[in-house]
Write a structure and sequence with these properties.
The protein is an alpha+beta fold and 409 residues long. It is 33% helix and 25% strand. The protein folds into 2 domains: 252 residues, Conserved hypothetical protein from pyrococcus furiosus pfu- 392566-001, ParB domain; 125 residues, no CATH class. A hairpin with a 2-residue loop joins strand 4 and strand 5. Helix 4 runs parallel beside helix 5 and helix 5 crosses helix 8. It is globular.
Length: 409
């Protein structure tokens, strides 16, 4: 890993009961309607900085002015000493309780060829440019880059156990019911232990590829000041490292019955009682490739690939990509078997979104995916390959504005 350092995080100075009112998720999971809700909720909500409603360059200028005004007014103020920050998130998935731990730290931005921070997704020009313009206007990071690393010795868990004996610096519950607790790590010995474990391993980007690309560009253009960014580091071994599936919504394509006929030569197919059942049954499959299909009206099926279906993907593709359901679906199923162009594909990160789109008739067909295993993500990154868009949805997301990293501090 590159150099990990404590920093004086900018944090909201509001009563504890108001903290949930002023934070928001990362910009890329905020719908226009939710942005409006956050705007109306509180005039101090960080969404006014990370996702301004003002179009064009004026929006970035407004974001910078808003941030500077809040600092001048004391709404945001730096902590007194440089610190690392331990973040605990407690949440439930399918009625099962989870806890994820991670450390927030500033870390040095490295050249793409160094290979100590490994991405697994390609980035798109429009969000790269958007995040870059916001970074130039604010000179601060509001959402951390989410990184995974191997902590076989359990250093973070041990630190968390020690911190849990003390009161957290901040705590709140977000709109999704995720409980957050934050501690500042100021002890020199504890910081050195965390620097030691993080400094000796490779880190894999789980989320925040556009923020990483933006940090690299800014470093090239801004020099020393741009040499640092904000990271959240969580152990690969942690049971709370949860990846949810990203489903596909097709604006055009076949019906379920037409899809059945197209898939039958290479797949074992079973009818399912709607989208939820298809998603659940596909997730239980142990076959190399499996997914569900559902259409408005309730018709659905589960498709499990027979061994001969592997011949549908390019033989020269990296083995890490060939192992992915998303790669298989985008290389073989959609273009070759179902004749669906890429521009007809939209994405939904929850089953509820899928069911709503089907109920409203806003999608011709839904493709219900299994979650991508963390081991597959690491394998893709190690091979320097890139997954198809929206192959992973790490849950829960990290809040924006909980700890802000000023580039100059």
């Amino acid at each position: 890993m590159p150099d990990i350092q404590p920093f004086r995080g900018l944090r909201y100075r509001v009563p504890p009961a108001e903290l949930a009112r002023v934070l928001c998720p990362p910009y890329d999971v905020i719908s226009p309607a939710y942005r409006d809700e956050l705007y109306a909720r509180d005039p101090r909500n960080i969404v006014r900085v990370v996702l301004s409603r003002t179009p064009g360059e004026a929006g970035y200028e407004e974001a910078g002015a808003t941030l500077r005004g809040w600092i001048a007014a004391g709404l945001l103020a730096p902590d007194p000493e440089p610190s690392l920050y331990l973040l605990e998130q407690s949440f439930a998935v399918d009625s099962r309780a989870h806890t994820r731990l991670g450390v927030l730290a500033r870390f040095r931005v490295e050249d793409p060829g160094r290979g100590r921070v490994l991405p697994h997704e390609q980035t798109r020009k429009e969000p790269r440019e958007d995040r870059y313009r916001l970074l130039k206007a604010t000179r601060a990071n509001f959402s951390p880059i989410f990184l995974m690393f191997s902590d076989a010795q359990g250093v973070i868990a041990a630190q968390a156990a020690r911190m849990a004996e003390t009161a957290p610096e901040a705590q709140y519950t977000d709109d999704g019911g995720v409980q957050h607790r934050l501690w500042r790590i100021q002890d020199g010995g504890a910081i050195a232990r965390l620097q030691g474990v993080l400094g000796s391993v490779t880190a894999y980007i789980a989320d925040g590829h556009h923020r990483w690309a933006t940090a690299q560009r800014y470093r090239e253009e801004a020099g020393t000041e741009g040499g640092w960014t904000l990271g959240y580091f969580t152990p690969l071994e942690a049971p709370g490292l949860v990846v949810l599936p990203y489903h596909r919504l097709l604006d055009g394509g076949p019906s379920v019955e037409e899809a059945r006929r197209a898939l039958e030569p290479s797949f074992a197919l079973e009818a399912a009682a709607g989208a939820a059942a298809a998603a659940h049954e596909a997730a239980q499959s142990t076959m190399p490739y499996a997914f569900g299909l559902a259409e408005p009206g309730g018709a659905a099926l589960v498709a499990e690939a027979r061994p001969e279906a592997e011949d549908l993907v390019p033989a020269d593709a990296p083995s890490s990509l060939r192992a992915l359901d998303t790669y298989f679906v985008h290389q073989a199923v959609l273009p070759r078997l179902l004749k669906v162009p890429e521009e007809a594909v939209r994405y939904a990160h929850s089953l509820g979104e899928v069911e709503e789109a089907l109920a409203r008739g806003e999608s011709r067909l839904a493709v219900l995916m299994r979650p991508t295993p963390v081991a597959h993500i690491v394998a893709v990154a190690e091979e320097r390959a890139s997954m198809p868009a929206k192959s992973t949805f790490f849950h829960p997301k990290l809040p924006s504005g909980l700890v802000i990293h000023p580039l100059h501090g």
